Structure formats: C-alpha cells, structure tokens
Amino acid sequence: MTSVLTARSLVAGYDGVAVVHGVDLEVAAGEVVALLGANGAGKTTLLLTVSGLLNPIAGSLEVLGESVVPGRRVRAASVTARARRGLAHVPEDRGLFPDLTAREHLRLRSRRSRRGTSDSLELDEVLEWFPALTRVMDRRAGLLSGGEQQMLSLARAVMDSPRLLLVDELSLGLAPLVVEQILPSLRTIATRTGAGVVVVEQHVGLALAVSDRAYVLGHGAVLASGTAADVAGQVEVLEAGYLGGNRSPRPEAGPGAPGPPAD
Ligand code: ATP
Questions:
Q1: What is the pLDDT of residue 258?
Q2: Spans of the chain, pLDDT less than 70
Q3: Does the CB atom of residue 19 touch ligand 1 within 6 A?
Q4: Position in ligand 1 atom list of the atom nearest CA 13
Q5: The pTM of the whole model exceeds 0.85
Q6: Which phi-psi region, left, alpha or beta, contains residue 145 (left: φ > 0; alpha: ψ -120 to 50)?
Q7: Exposed, middle or buried, 60 (CB in 10 Å: 0-12/13-18/19+)?
Q8: CA 176 to chain centre
C-alpha cells in the first residue's frame, strides 16, 4: 500500500516548545485513521505539522512523498506546495466564508479542474455523497446549520480529489445524531477517491466504527495504536487517554455508541 504520511519520532510544537513527543504515525492511501485522545493531547498540533502550518521540531516526517526538514521557520510556500501535491485540511473552525453561498464555495474549489491542473471530482458526484447540501446550494454558508456547514467544508475539500485529507474535530458543536450521519462520508471518500483520511474525533465509538486504524494520544505521545477493532477493545488505554487530559469526555462502550453531547 502507498504511504501518504509517515512520521517517525516526530516532535512538534510551538516556538520550539514541544507538545508532541516522538510520535510514530503511518497513513496509507485509501484508509481512514482516527486520532483519538483528550483535549490538549496534541492532535491538532500533529495535523498542523502535517499540513505545514507548523514545522517539526525534530524527527522525520514524509507527507505525500515530500520529506519535511525540521526547523523553526514555517514557510507559506511549503503549505501551498503540500496542498498542490494533494493535501487538504478541514480545520476545526471549518474555514468557510459566511457571505458566500454553498455553491460559490464549491465553484471556487472546482476552478482548479477547469484549469486542467488536477483530476478534480465533478460537483454532482460530490453532492451524491452529501445529498443534504443539494437543497441549500444557494444559501449563504453563515446561514447553514452546523451539520450543513461541516458537510460543505468536507465537500469543498474533496472537490480537488485530495490524496491526503486531514479532518479536525468534525463533530465540534454537532449533535451525536448529525455526527453519526456525516462521519461515514469519510469512509466513502477514502474508498471512492483512494485518499488517506486522518480524522480527529471526540466521539470515540463513532470514529472507530468508520476507521481502519486508530492512534490514541495522551500528553503528546502515542498511548496505543492498531486496527480500529484492537483499539476499541483497549478500554483501559482509551480511558487513560481521555481521563489523563484536561477535560474528559469518556469513551463509549464500543463502535457506534453515541458520543458526548454537543456543546
Ligand atoms: P483539542 O481536542 O482540545 O483540540 P488537541 O489534542 O488537539 O486538543 P492541541 O490543540 O494540539 O491538542 O494542543 C496540545 C498542547 O499544545 C496543549 O497543551 C495546548 O495548550 C498547546 N497549544 C496549542 N496551541 C498552542 C499555541 N498556539 N501556542 C502554544 N501552545 C499551544
């Protein structure tokens, strides 16, 4: 299987201060990998480092075939280059423009395909994966529900057929029922496009149900990793991962079980 992301002994953080300590992480094309752990465990920091918004402090990192040299300086050019190579990052805040309609967001994205610079997906195909968006295409993003906004940010990210998709806290502020509806789309995206998908998620059971593999982080280190089924069985490690943090949404009993209530 082709690796789209490999981290070895990765140290990452802010202004040279490490909050991620020696993480090993591997993501292959076509698989969904969950990053689990309490608030402050280092999940977002890891994603920011992979997407180039932070530079690694030490260790090795290979993203879509590019070796990233550790150092303290972040270069905008490397973020853009990584995006061109096929990296898409859906941030916690969804990154939408409140005054643009859903259609305008998706049109902005598909411009690359019109230039013939990528094998972008057709709008119709992406809308098949997010049918709820079809009725709100001409509504401004700021007026969409939280779930619709999240679907839009995912749809926008997949329009360019990413080879590596990073999704941070898809469920933030969403009711568990909505999360249950949206999370399986990550599985569809990985299977249909061959992208490697990394999802940071607080709804542990739901995340494991759509993932192939998972990593549990605690205080910036990997506490456990393995297939989703293996990790789901390690209740004690999961509890250590969550109860060891600042806040403690307890993991559910198993895949598919509801997560913590929406904020
Ligand atoms: P959450 O689930 O709450 O988003 P997380 O697992 O994604 O948590 P991070 O956001 O990566 O965790 O934070 C890891 C650590 O880095 C925390 O101790 C946090 O306080 C610290 N941190 C985050 N952002 C910064 C920053 N800009 N400058 C300095 N430290 C930061």
A1: 35
A2: 72, 109-121, 241, 243-263
A3: yes
A4: 16
A5: yes
A6: beta
A7: middle
A8: 18
